[in-house]
């Protein structure tokens, strides 16, 4: 009997020790793990979330510096790490940690949000990390939402779409665009965006427009269709007029899609066409085709592989060592019936 009591008591003690160990590990995993972010800090839970999600990693001395102004590339890195988009790698071609983030930002066309390039290889001094004013953050998030507006319109878009609630109130002035964003505010901003924006989008090509609240219900591809007619600057090299399509965004319900037009100027006896599929974060090449030019006209039918957004580009072949000239681009969205 005594032996049974001792065994039972030992089991209780071991169970208590095991519970304490689990609670200790859990508390450590859920904590911010930064020396300067205590549980009573207003941003503790969000900073902990950002740490656990691999969005922030703090400084070598174990601090997070929550009230320090966030750097321009620091915020860009937080945004990209939050989404872990396809086609992105943190491996750097130089010793500057910012390089892969900057390169991805420019690849997505977010340069209009004033992303500063990393240090020049001709310089022996690294470029400083500039603090990020809130209005620049608004422009970057707007670009990453597949849209392109000026500063005030970018802020209006964020407020209307729920990507931000402002700082003092839900107005452009209440957004406090000229104020710097702290690191704690930055992760709060990222968490809110992540909860509402499904994926990162490329910024629209070649233009910035006025914000129209009616476009909130449209996809970025529909709200910002491509220029279906080529810019005048390309006229000396090649020129075509499209009969189909006549718009930069085209919604269809049949996988067969016919493209046709007339050729005013071109090099060679065929045009080159590329078809890319939007795969939740980047355009993936699907096919490259040659379209014969017959008596100044061209016509071809493409078979779309699956429902979704396709980006179609038509090029004119150029002389040796000269890149093909982009004549026109447009979106085709295939929705099955």
From TrEMBL:
Pfam families: SLH (PF00395). Keywords: Signal. This is SLH domain-containing protein. PROSITE patterns: SLH (PS51272). Residues 30-93, 138-204 form the SLH domain. Residues 1-29 form the signal peptide. InterPro entries: Cell_Envelope_Struct_Comp (IPR051465), SLH_dom (IPR001119). It comes from the Bacteria.
